[in-house]
Write a structure and sequence with these properties.
3-stranded antiparallel beta sheet, 12% strand, PH-domain like, elongated, mainly alpha
């Protein structure tokens, strides 16, 4: 909120500076041209405070931070800033929802159900305001976006009428209309009610979904709907094949060396092979574990890969992906394709 208000104030100061200090001389950057350009642009400036970021990657705890590592960007969120976390298992993977002290919401489609439950319990235990996440229930008025567009169009009309003289009209209508839109937006950014953050319950979720009909991403709506009736966490703690913070290439090399040489991963190569087979056959195993297991156990042989994939409890679309992944000749190309394959959950 502080960033939104700062940007709104900066926009107002920019327009006022143009009106007070830019000379009204006849040049490409005189007062009239600069006013129209500045007003049309700064009306959208506060939107920079509404940050959205999505990525396919890995989420894990590293000391006192929650690390969200994507391919192009890594974010480190202090655990002290987390106000709630809850995990809802799906038919495959699950939905992890984390709320922050600044009222932002982090939603994660987790491919590993057991790891998601463990992480949610860890985060919930570190919160200072209880384990239940909360979400803001009030959105911006629905007329804000049309008001920004109207202000920009009026600023454009001012430029076309006063500077270019390409259209007819009233100078005061265009200029004062754009200023009026800017003033209303400034008041909204500073004084509109924000809504009290409420505990995530089915009634609250329905209210949130109604409050953000157009601004909410479908992925976020799916997470909130999945959280409406969370199932109790189940299942034993299972050590993943890919360690937190470990790259896919490093994990593949380590596991492959452990199977062929022994002693590199939790005792004997036979024990590791059993773990790979379990990861391949378990109905709650994450996609990365399954993919690496099939690639190692199949050894690039089409008949062996087909034999093993026939007994793997996965949907048809994922079955085809795993088979293709296991038969790609180069490790680098295969791992690149796996990294692009996002996790999914089904409520």
């Amino acid at each position: 909120m502080w960033l939104e208000r700062t940007l709104a104030a900066l926009a107002a100061v920019s327009v006022a500076s143009v009106l007070l200090f830019v000379p009204g001389m006849d040049s490409p950057f005189d007062r009239y041209t600069t006013f129209a350009l500045c007003t049309g642009v700064v009306l959208w400036l506060p939107l920079l405070a509404q940050t959205r970021w999505s990525a396919v990657g890995e989420v894990y705890r590293d000391g006192e931070h929650l690390v969200v590592a994507g391919r192009l960007r890594t974010r480190r969120l202090p655990l002290a800033s987390i106000r709630g976390a809850r995990f809802t298992p799906g038919s495959h993977g699950g939905s992890l929802l984390v709320t922050m002290a600044d009222a932002s919401v982090l939603t994660i489609a987790v491919d590993d159900r057991v790891a998601g439950e463990t992480l949610a319990r860890t985060l919930a235990a570190r919160t200072h305001e209880g384990a239940q996440p909360t979400v803001p229930t009030a959105a911006a008025p629905h007329f804000i976006l049309p008001l920004r567009a109207a202000g920009s169009l009026l600023a454009l009309g001012y430029y076309l009428h006063v500077v270019v003289r390409a259209i007819d009209g009233d100078k005061a209508f265009f200029g004062l209309g754009a200023l009026f839109c800017g003033l209303v937006l400034l008041l909204i950014h500073f004084f509109r009610p924000r809504g009290r953050a409420s505990v995530l319950e089915p009634a609250t979720i329905a209210k949130v979904l109604r409050a953000y009909p157009s601004a909410m991403r479908p992925e976020l709506a799916a997470h909130l709907q999945a959280q409406a009736e969370p199932a109790a966490p189940t299942g034993p703690v299972r050590a993943p094949l890919v360690e937190p913070g470990e790259g896919l290439a490093a994990a593949l090399a380590r596991l492959r060396a452990g199977v062929s040489e022994g002693g590199a991963y939790r005792n004997s190569p036979d024990a590791l092979r059993v773990r790979l087979e379990q990861a391949l056959e378990a109905d709650d195993a994450p996609l990365a574990d399954r993919a690496l297991s099939l690639r190692i156990l199949g050894g690039g042989r089409g008949d062996e890969v087909k034999r093993r994939i026939e007994t793997t409890p996965v949907p048809d679309d994922e079955r085809a992906f795993l088979e293709d992944f296991a038969l790609i000749a180069e490790d680098r190309a295969a791992l690149k394709r796996l990294a692009r394959k996002g996790p999914r959950f089904a409520g």
